[in-house]
């Protein structure tokens, strides 16, 4: 479903992760800091986003007939979302699963409107036959963390305001087409981090009507103070990961903040869903954290099912970069089965 053209945004990320750019902190005296390939922030406050700005409007996708539209959810905070409806939803009125998707971009860049994410959501909605809400949360540095967590939580509550218990919600695509017992949350990279944290919050705050069935993480951005696995072998990428967190969340408690390192979350056992899949890529500095996340969940007394899938020879968010590759097609198939609650954990 996705188009053939390589998406500059993801492409840059790959180049970056492969070559580990020479310097992440720029030298020009006018630059406050730079995190390649995401953002450059000047001392005078100007923010330049280096990637993720190639946006496309919502549309009726001619091939899949997936329909999309943009809506404002909270005008005072400028929180919006792009909604997706599969072709089956317009023909019949049976209820479908709902995917709440949270995009990546190091907390600093990209949006649901970035072409790569738009194309990806279309491919998922068509393949899995689900309704989707792709969250447009506030980005650092203008909106430092925890803004993205708060914004995404607000969107989740808005979603569930359309359920029977939630009442109120007036978005017809959700009211008419969604089965609120089959809501899934997913995200990649920084979005995977946010996705985990909103589902964790859903387990702690019993908001009426909020029941999340599953969580699907793709190369999630977790980290920690101590080096684990192969992390130490790439000091440049370690520095980048640290720079991202320091600048995205100046007020965090550090690299072992439970928002970044679930090993230190005393409430992990209350994660608010029943099943989790975490995809990791072999050649990704974040691989070991993804695998560690599975271990942490298993060690906690969480009463759900967690499964990791490591894709050999793959790079960070490989499926977004190379949507047509065999690995990407298999992952999409797996994701679609997961969203339909079918036994999908055969491929390991
Ligand atoms: C740095 O800022 C000064 C003052 O605003 C300006 O004159 C100069 O052109 C800037 N240099 C660069 C490389 O942008
Ligand atoms: C801030 O600095 C950058 C780089 O020197 C310059 O391009 C930009 O115009 C400046 N913006 C303001 C508002 O001064
Ligand atoms: C609101 O969000 C839109 C979409 O992300 C963005 O283009 C716009 O600049 C934002 N407006 C304000 C006032 O921040
Ligand atoms: C950090 O916390 C302090 C105290 O609560 C607050 O005044 C400040 O705005 C925060 N900084 C950021 C970047 O969020
Ligand atoms: C754990 O959950 C309790 C409420 O159940 C909350 O007060 C506390 O802040 C949570 N701890 C963390 C680290 O999130
Ligand atoms: C020429 C120069 O000063 N390069 C430096 C730019 O910044 C990076 C990161 O701090 C340094 O590693 C370079 O040596």
Description:
The active site is at 189. Belongs to the 'GDXG' lipolytic enzyme family. It comes from Salvia divinorum. An eight-stranded mixed β-sheet has the order 4-5-7-6-8-9-10-11, sandwiched between helices. A three-stranded antiparallel β-sheet has the order 1-2-3. It has ten helices and eleven strands. The chain has helices spanning 8-19, 87-91, 115-128, 147-160, 172-177, 190-204, 235-248, 287-299, 318-321, 326-339; strands spanning 31-35, 39-42, 47-49, 67-74, 79-85, 96-102, 131-136, 178-188, 214-218, 275-283, 305-315. The chain folds into two domains: 24-53, no CATH class; 67-339, Rossmann fold (3-Layer(aba) Sandwich), CATH 3.40.50. The chain is an alpha/beta fold and 348 residues long. One 2-acetamido-2-deoxy-beta-D-glucopyranose is lined by residues 144, 250-251.
**Could you name the CATH topology of the largest domain?**
Rossmann fold
**Overall strand count:** 11
Please compute the radius of gyration using only Cα atoms.
19 Å
Number of helical regions: 10
Structural class: alpha/beta
**How large a portion of the residues is in β-strands, by DSSP E?**
15-25%
Largest sheet: 8 strands, mixed
CATH superfamily of the largest domain: Alpha/Beta hydrolase fold, catalytic domain
Please identify the oligomeric state.
single chain
Count up the domains: 2
């Amino acid at each position: 479903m996705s188009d053939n053209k390589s998406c500059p945004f993801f492409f840059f990320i790959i180049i970056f992760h492969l070559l580990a750019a020479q310097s992440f902190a720029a030298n020009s005296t006018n630059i406050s800091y730079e995190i390649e390939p995401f953002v450059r922030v000047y001392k005078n406050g100007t923010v330049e986003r280096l990637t993720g700005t190639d946006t496309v409007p919502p549309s009726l996708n001619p091939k899949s007939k997936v329909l999309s539209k943009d809506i404002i959810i909270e005008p005072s905070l400028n929180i919006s979302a792009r909604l997706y409806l599969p072709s089956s939803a317009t023909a019949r009125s049976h209820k479908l699963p709902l995917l709440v998707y949270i995009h990546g971009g190091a907390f600093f860049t990209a949006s649901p409107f970035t072409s790569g994410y738009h194309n990806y959501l279309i491919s998922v909605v068509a393949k899995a036959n689900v309704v989707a809400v792709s969250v447009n949360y506030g980005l650092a540095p203008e909106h430092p963390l925890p803004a993205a967590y708060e914004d995404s939580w607000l969107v989740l509550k808005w979603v569930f305001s359309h359920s029977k218990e939630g009442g109120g919600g007036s978005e017809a695509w959700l009211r008419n087409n969604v089965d609120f017992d089959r809501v899934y949350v997913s995200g990649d990279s920084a979005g995977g981090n946010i996705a985990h944290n909103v589902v964790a919050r859903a387990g702690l705050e019993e908001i009426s009507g909020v029941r999340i069935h599953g969580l699907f993480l793709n190369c999630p951005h977790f980290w920690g103070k101590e080096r684990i696995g192969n992390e130490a072998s790439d000091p440049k990428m370690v520095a980048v990961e640290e720079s991202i967190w320091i600048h995205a969340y100046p007020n965090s408690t550090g690299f072992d903040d439970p928002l970044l390192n679930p090993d230190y979350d005393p409430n992990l056992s209350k994660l608010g869903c029943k099943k989790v899949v975490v995809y990791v890529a072999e050649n990704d500095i974040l691989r070991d954290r993804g695998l560690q996340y599975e271990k942490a969940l298993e060690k906690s007394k969480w009463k759900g099912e967690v499964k990791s899938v490591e894709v050999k020879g793959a790079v960070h968010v490989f499926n977004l970069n190379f949507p047509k590759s065999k690995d990407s097609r298999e992952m999409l198939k797996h994701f679609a089965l997961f969203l339909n609650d079918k036994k999908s954990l055969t491929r390991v």
